[in-house]
């Protein structure tokens, strides 16, 4: 299996760990509009986008789901699989046809448990993604619902 050609996972993980993870992946595809997962459901797998785009969204009572972030090639879709209780905090939908690497969360957690160096690399990677997503969610929700927005000029 070839490694992804884009930055996310490539920059975050040492080559040995990246290749080990990719050996456990399977290639999948989703048509535009396909729902990868819903907020609140069990996080039993995750993906790294190869091609296409995925919107992460959050349910907002009385309103349409708010798009928190749009992900593209090389980016991680799904972070809740790593941390108990392993339930999704956001939803995800394909905004275009998507090709991705799919990983079994239980198998990857087991690999991380058995190899502490791999576990540390994966935790650093996913932790960095989580910090970025939290910042994105805060900014997006303030832009949508606060009287003066987030004040961000991004």
From TrEMBL:
List the GO molecular function terms.
DNA-binding transcription factor activity
Q: Per the record, GO CC terms?
A: cytosol
Q: Where is the Cyclic nucleotide-binding domain?
A: 9-111
The record's listing under CDD domains reads: CAP_ED
Highest taxon listed in the record's lineage? Bacteria
- Listed PROSITE patterns: CNMP_BINDING_3
**What's the protein called, per UniProt?**
Regulator
């Amino acid at each position: 299996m070839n490694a992804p050609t884009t930055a996310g996972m490539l920059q975050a993980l040492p080559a040995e760990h990246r290749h080990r993870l990719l050996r456990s992946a399977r290639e999948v595809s989703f048509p535009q509009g396909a729902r990868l997962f819903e907020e609140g459901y069990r996080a039993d797998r995750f993906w790294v986008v190869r091609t296409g785009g995925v919107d992460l969204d959050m349910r907002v009572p009385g309103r349409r789901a708010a798009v928190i972030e749009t992900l593209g090639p090389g980016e991680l879709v799904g972070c809740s699989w790593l941390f108990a209780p392993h339930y999704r905090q956001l939803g995800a939908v394909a905004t275009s046809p998507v090709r991705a690497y799919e990983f079994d969360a239980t198998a990857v957690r087991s690999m991380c448990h058995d190899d502490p160096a791999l576990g540390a690399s994966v935790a650093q990677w996913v932790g960095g993604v989580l910090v970025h997503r939290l910042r994105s969610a805060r900014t997006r929700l303030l832009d949508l619902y606060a009287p003066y927005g987030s004040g961000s000029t991004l």
